[in-house]
Amino acid sequence: RHRRQDPVWSAFVQDEVALVAERLGVSLGAKLEHNPFTGVEVQPSARLLWTPGAAHSAWAAVSRAVRTPSLAEDDIRSHGLSRGAAPPVFPRVTGNPRLGTEAVLAYEAGYRVQATAALSVDAAAFYNVYDGLVTFVPGTPEPGPGGSTVRPLVYRNAVDGETYGAEVAADWHPTGGWALYGAYSFLRMQLHPDPGAPATAAAEEGKSPAHQAYLQSSWDLGRTVECDLTGRYVGRLTGFNPSGAAGLVDAVSAYTTLDARLAW
After folding, report:
1. Using only C-alpha atoms, what is the Rg of the chain?
2. What is the pLDDT of residues 226-262, one digit of tens each?
3. Considering only CA atoms, which of 69, 192, 189, 42 is closest in space to residue 134?
4. Nearest CA to 109 among 98, 123, 120?
5. What is the distance between the alpha carbons of residues 49 and 249, in angstroms, rounded to a whole number?
6. What's the Cα-to-Cα distance from 214 to each of 73, 226, 262, rounded to whole Å?
7. Coil/strand/helix, residue 71
8. Is 230 exposed, middle or buried (0-12, 13-18, 19+ CB in 10 A)?
C-alpha cells in the first residue's frame, strides 16, 4: 500500500503603524509558507489608510499571493474518452512534479464617502499581474490500440496575464423603512499563453463578464412585512467555444434577472 505525506508549514506576521494619529496609518504583513511542491513561498502585503475626516476615507494596497500545485496537478494520470473522431483520439492528462506556483501581484485603491447620514458611496479600482498560470499543454501524439491516437496533455505554468477593473457601489436609505443598494463593476482580462500553449488558454478572457450591475430595493412594510426587489445585469460571455467546434456553445448572451421577495 502506497502512503504519502505532504506537510505544509506556515506563519503570519503583521504590524499596524499610525503615521499621523487618527489620520494616516499603514499596515505591513507577510505570510510565509513551506510546502513540498515549491518550497518556501513569501506573500507580503502593505496597506495605507487615510481618513482626512469623519466622512471620508481612502486606501491603497499592494500584495502578493500564490496558489501552490495540487496533488492532482503533481501526479495525476487520467485517460479520457474520444469525442467521435475517426480514428478515435483519446486525451491523457499527466501531472507535472516540476510545476511551479501561480502568483499574482495585486495593486488596489479605493475611496469611501459618507455623503449624508443616509447615503454612502464606495469606489475601488485594481490592477493584477499574474505569472505562471496553469494550463494543459499538448505533447507529441502517441499511437494507441486499434489504430487510435493518444494525445498527452501535461499541466504547465504556461500563461501570464493582467486583469484590471473598477467597482462603484452606493447605499441609500431615503426613509427609515426603505433602503436602496446599487453597484456596478467593470473587468478586463488580458492573457498571454507561452509559445506551444494552446490558443484556447486565452479564451478564459471571455469566461468572465466585463460588465455587471446590481440594484436592490428593500421595504419594511410595517413591523411584520418585508418586501425586496432585486435586479441584476450580467454582460455577454464569449470564451466558451474559441475553436469553433460543432455542438458547443459559442457564447452566452447578456442577461437581466429580476427577483421579488415578500416576507411576513
Report:
1. 25
2. 999 999 999 999 877 655 555 556 788 999 999 999 9
3. 69
4. 123
5. 45
6. 37, 20, 19
7. helix
8. middle
